[in-house]
Amino acid sequence: MQFRTHLALAFLFGLFYLELIGYSLAEGGLILLLFLFGALLPDIDHFSSWLNNKLKITKILALFLQPRGMMHSLFFAVLIFFIIGLFWEFSYATAILLGYLSHLLGDLLTKDGLRLFQPFGQLNISGFFRTGKLFEKFIFILLMVLIVLKLFP
Fold first, then answer.
1. If 0-12 CB within 10 Å is exposed, 13-18 middle and 19+ buried, where does residue 20 land?
2. Whole-prediction pTM value?
3. d(C-alpha 146, C-alpha 55), whole Å
4. Who wins on pLDDT, 68 or 4?
5. Are 68 and 107 in contact (CB under 8 A)?
6. Are 11 and 36 in contact (CB under 8 A)?
7. Cα–Cα distance measured from residue 131 to residue 133, given in angstroms and rounded to the nearest whole number
8. Most buried residue, 60, 99, 113, 148, by CB count within 10 Å?
9. Averaged over 30-46, what is the pLDDT?
């Protein structure tokens, strides 16, 4: 899934999460930003990802990580959640985790799929569309419409 579609999916999930915890958009601005950051985090294993182009230091990590490898696993998502939870509030760690999981969900829908259970299993779970093709463009537009409807009921 492409960068913008990951962000749209995470933003929509973030809006639903804010509603669930009883925050307004103004109160939950940081939570939404953390959702978006979490949605970008798994792709630091891609050398040319948006995050790697902005935070040059993460490019070093990409040299040692396989694309759609460990960074794209539930194990790593939970590990990051616990590490962040040691230093930040639980709500912030949760927002990053949920954004991260939205990224994994998006990639599961693509034909490339993910080995979600690494390092404990190599089963590849894949979806039905190719990244960047017409159907993903449709999904992106649908997500944008849903975001507008959620923001302006």
1. exposed
2. 0.88
3. 30
4. 4
5. yes
6. yes
7. 6
8. 99
9. 90
Residue 122 exposed, middle or buried by CB count within 10 Å (0-12, 13-18, 19+) = exposed
All structural domains of the chain with their residue ranges: 3-151
pLDDT digits 0-9 by tens, 41-85? 998 776 566 665 666 665 555 545 565 668 889 999 999 999 999
Q: Give me the residue label for tokens 């993903």.
A: 136
CA gap 81, 31 in Å, rounded: 14
What is the length of the chain? 153
- Token pair of 36, please? 């978006």
Q: What is the pLDDT of residue 68?
A: 65
Amino acid at 100: Y
